[in-house]
Amino acid sequence: MNRKETLKLKGIEIRIMAELMKNSRRSDREIAKTVGTSQPTVSRTIKKLEKEGFIREYTMVPDFAKLGFQIAGFTRFELDEKPYPERGKARNAIMEAYACLSGVEGIGEQANRLFVNLYESYSEYSEAMNTLRAVPIIDARNIDSFLVDLNDRKSYRYLSMSAVANHLLQRLKDKKP
Fold first, then answer.
1. What percent of the chain has pLDDT over 70?
2. 105 in helix, strand or coil?
3. Torsion (CA) 133, 138, 141, 143 in degrees, nearest 10
4. Residues 6 or more apart in contact with residue 111 via CB below 8 angstroms
5. Domain spans of the chain?
6. Contact of 76 with 108, CB cutoff 8 Å
7. How far apart are CA 34 and CA 22, in angstroms?
8. What is the fold, at CATH topology level, of the domain defined by 3-60+160-175?
9. pLDDT per residue over 135-167, tens digit each?
10. CB within 8 A of 98, min separation 6: which ones?
11. What contacts 76, CB < 8 A, 6 or more positions away?
12. Are 138 and 78 in contact (CB under 8 A)?
């Protein structure tokens, strides 16, 4: 999906998506009242947004520390693009063995992959890094991580879609004459 595709969304569609991002447990009737339209319009719009792929899934965000995770790790590394018969096995070693929130390909200084994982301990994080370093198509010298202590309640913002929803609403507001 490119920028032009996102611009095709109507104002009501953006407002409904923003409300769902803030709290997807709300009823269509509650959302309709908030955005100033009817419940059937909200229901039809949501179905349309799901069908068109604007809404990919509904989920909740837990308190990761209360679930036993102590560390969130943002790990960058360079994956060689040459053919490697065990590429899928290498990816799954990290993405499935540890609680992987996201694994993406991108562009960065000496890195083209990023994993965001949750770890129960520093030793589990170290084990994951050793697993990464053992993969022949990863340059072990260029693996770096940014670690977040999930028990430090003052130093991080919880994972939330509310800020994105507010940004979309502000962008919509700024477009109006």
1. 89
2. strand
3. -80
4. 76, 77, 78, 142, 144
5. 3-60+160-175, 71-149
6. yes
7. 12
8. Arc Repressor Mutant, subunit A (1.10.10)
9. 888 887 889 999 999 998 776 667 788 888 989
10. 117, 118, 119, 124, 128
11. 108, 110, 111, 113, 114, 142, 143, 144, 145
12. yes
CATH for 71-149? 3.30.70.920
Tokens of 39: 């419940």
Alpha-helical (H) ranges within the chain are 3-7, 11-22, 28-35, 39-51, 87-95, 122-133, 162-175
Helix (H, G, I), strand (E, B) or coil at 81: coil
Give the full edge-to-edge strand order of the sheet including 71-77: 99-108, 111-119, 71-77, 144-149
The residue length of the chain stands at 177
> Which residue has 């004459």 as its token pair?
177
DSSP strand pairing (71-77 vs 144-149): antiparallel
Q: Residue holding tokens 């096995």?
A: 89
pLDDT digits (tens, 9 = 90+) for 109-124: 889 889 999 999 999 9
